[in-house]
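Q: Sequence in, structure out?
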Amino acid sequence: MTAVETPPATVRDKRAAVRVPRRRRVSARTETALGFSAWRGPAGMVSRIFVYGLLVFVFAGPLLALLSSSFSHVTDPSKLTLIPTDFTLDNFRRAIDRDVLGYLLNSFIVVGGGLLLQVFVSVSASYALARKKFPFLRLIFLLILSTMMLPEEILAIPLSIVLADVNLIGSLLGMIIPVGAWGFSILVMTEFMKEIPAELEEAARIDGAGDLRIFWSIVLPLCRPALGVIGIFGFTMIWDQYMLPLLVATDSHQFTLPLALRGLRSDEEVGLGVVIAASLLALLPSVLAFLAMQRQFMRGLTSGAVKG
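A: Exactly. Output:
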């Protein structure tokens, strides 16, 4: 008798012989830092609803109270409610009579011009710092970072002297130019541009592209997440400026809305409801800006978190 040769076991047969229990994959939506993936059953559902409700109350409660009180007759700041007691638009009418819309327009002009200038300066400086080699590169980058360590109070007097020398006191342009360069935006864009593969730039140079073409067509489109980050932070930084308009403005018609809120609060003829309505108008643009750019903002925050 001839022995029957058995064919060698294949890789598939070996995998079938040794069955390794596979881990149950948990949805990324339920796997959170709070450990919600382990909260199952009715008790887990109740716990989630309680935690979510508590978070909404803590973070959205002040905004909802401000929104509700702006449409109510408020006389006591300690009695703000989430539901309007007597709905009225009188607070907004009186705020408009106090030229709040003019202050709001000044804020939009300063934010629009300052943010465009800030983004242009940031992406231009970051491209040179991240993609070029030149002497004293580290020293220049260190000097840019050092500007973030100086508080506004220290820069107030030198800045006012410089603005007075160039005749920018008393104009909105004097509020736009000083915010055109921000160390934080340059830092974020520089670190993001360093992560862009150099092979893309080399391939573009082989095809005959110059620095401007590479910057505009290759580097800048890949930096959209970082642009969302510096756009939101830059908008908030410029919108919340108080010291700079205080130094530059020489007339109440040049006030921005955050600066005008101080005058409304100190005016005894203005009721608390008018101040709350003006505060709501000062708060909404920042919220809307975040909602408009939140997708790019989240992509920018998580762009370097996962490798491979």
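Residues 100-131 form the longest helix (32 residues).
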